[in-house]
Specification:
two-stranded antiparallel sheet; 2 strands
Length: about 500
């Protein structure tokens, strides 16, 4: 935590943790390219990711009591200089992103051997690290324009990573192109919003913006900025009906990339939305309250049902999970739209719990793709007996997706129902339960396909190597552990929610 003064003070390595969080993977990416050695690419990527994970844990421990770390880049004090600002909310997101990356990379080591040609492996890991460092940068920076810069770093590398799936299915190229177009439109909207904010306030530092926006509350420029930012980030979040890019992108990307993106990319975008809604604009901004209650809340409820219905009728396991992600994003947005501390706690907890659940399920799908070269229901039928460990992980992830007690998914949905009842919105609470019942239908379809149908006689299916099974089961056991021990998830989510809601005490 660098001091606000410009003179040189003796700083320990621990004081530079916020900068190292992003720098470690960001410098490892070009190192992989420069060395251009296939054997070194994976160890460097994994070491950088594991080190980032350790840094994320250390940062979260330091801010769990509600304190804030302000790191001044180059010793320049904000708002003049660029600031990395760490509180419970973004330390929680940093932990999720770095944990998922560290778990997915060993899985990717074997998975991409089959899905990505050998000559691309070195650049694959470089692009992965760029995407990873971009997501970390989005979460940690305290500068609004830097959010845009890091979003673009992660997005550009994501388009390349999704396109790598073209060796298995050429439609990956179309999916990547569609995401590129939609992602660029979203980024353009977002940066226009940032430009309007700068025009109205003369600053880009988020903490400084939060102080200056109330003085401009009647300004049309600030209102336009809010609208542009919400739509721009809405595209990145895959908020219904701006979600059309997500199912093809998840379906045709290499399995390891789908597992990583599903658990991190939309979650980081949700964090940006939370940060701007609660820290920068603050819900005292009347325009924002009506936007959340009359636009975001109905959209979230529609997403929970519409995407779940589409998921039920899918015949491809991977595509079903992609549509399920759109529905789960609906739950997170619903928690935000409640504008209460309990609602925001539920949103942040679900952001984490859904991340580990989807990582489990997409890694399991990748295992089926590795073994039988496909994820359609008629391709994976009967594999519950041939691939018992992978299929058991599917059951654990499926139960968490539904929200069965004892799993991580139950905890966040329970807090979400509590938030609805706190506001006296019984109908919304019933809708949350009803949409969870739709998840029972599409998860049961998969269980039925795996365990109640016979495997074709000519099937060569067999269990995947341990290097793929171990990460999958780490994520699956995390779904159970965080469903039983809620201190870390709900505790950190509550601290984060209190910090975010600090400027809006009138709305509790």
């Amino acid at each position: 935590m660098a001091s606000g003064t410009v003179e040189h003070t003796a700083l320990t390595l621990a004081d530079h943790l916020p900068a190292l969080q992003v720098l470690v993977p960001f410098l490892a990416a070009p190192l992989i390219v420069v060395l251009a050695n296939r054997r070194l690419a994976w160890p460097i990527a994994f070491a950088a990711s594991a080190l980032s994970f350790v840094i994320a844990i250390l940062l979260l421990v330091r801010v769990m009591d509600g304190s804030v770390i302000s790191y001044h880049m180059g010793g320049w004090a904000p708002p003049l200089g660029i600031e990395y600002r760490v509180d419970a909310a973004n330390a929680y997101v940093l932990l999720l992103v770095s944990a998922i990356s560290t778990v997915v990379l060993p899985y990717a080591y074997k998975s991409i051997e089959q899905e990505v040609s050998e000559r691309h492996h070195t650049l694959f890991y470089a692009a992965f690290l760029l995407c990873f460092s971009g997501l970390l940068g989005v979460a940690i920076t305290g500068d609004a324009f830097n959010v845009f810069v890091f979003l673009e770093i992660s997005s550009l590398s994501t388009y390349v990573l999704i396109a790598q799936g073209s060796e298995r299915d050429k439609r990956a190229l179309t999916a990547s192109y569609d995401y590129l177009i939609m992602g660029t439109i979203g980024a353009t909207f977002f940066v226009i919003g940032i430009g309007f904010l700068y025009m109205a306030t003369g600053t880009l530092n988020m903490a400084d913006l939060a102080e200056r926006i109330p003085e401009q509350s009647g300004s049309r420029t600030v209102r336009a900025a809010f609208a542009f930012i919400v739509v721009g980030i809405g595209l990145k979040v895959a908020m219904y009906p701006l979600h059309r890019w997500l199912p093809p992108a998840y379906n045709y990307a290499p399995s390891a990339i789908t597992a990583f993106l599903a658990a991190t990319a939309t979650k980081v975008a949700v964090y940006v939305m939370l940060r701007f809604i609660f820290s920068v604009f603050q819900p005292a901004f009347v325009f924002e309250v009506s936007t959340l209650e009359f636009i975001i809340l109905p959209i979230a409820l529609i997403a929970m049902f519409a995407a779940s219905f589409v998921a039920i009728f899918q015949s491809d396991f991977k595509m079903m999970l992609a549509y399920s992600s759109v529905a789960q994003i609906g739950y997170i947005l619903l928690g935000i739209a409640f504008l209460t501390e309990t609602g925001v706690t539920a949103a942040i907890a679900h952001l984490f719990n859904h991340g580990i659940t989807k990582a489990t399920l997409f890694m399991a799908v990748g295992a089926y793709v590795f073994s039988v070269r496909g994820s359609f229901y008629d391709t994976i039928q009967g594999l519950g007996r041939r691939m018992p460990l992978t299929s058991a992980a599917v059951v654990v992830g499926g139960l968490s997706l539904i929200g069965v007690p004892g799993t991580a998914g139950f905890i966040s949905k329970w807090v979400l129902v509590q938030a609805a009842l706190e506001k006296g919105w019984w109908l919304v609470a019933l809708l949350i339960v009803a949409s969870s019942l739709l998840a029972v239908i599409y998860v049961w379809r998969v269980v039925e396909v795996l365990y109640m149908r016979t495997t074709p006689d000519d099937s060569q299916a067999r269990e995947v190597p341990a290097i793929m099974l171990v990460p999958m089961w780490i994520a699956a056991l995390a779904c159970i552990y965080f469903g039983l021990n809620t201190d870390v998830t709900v505790g950190a989510a509550q601290t984060a929610a209190q910090g975010l809601m600090a400027g809006s005490s009138g709305l509790h």
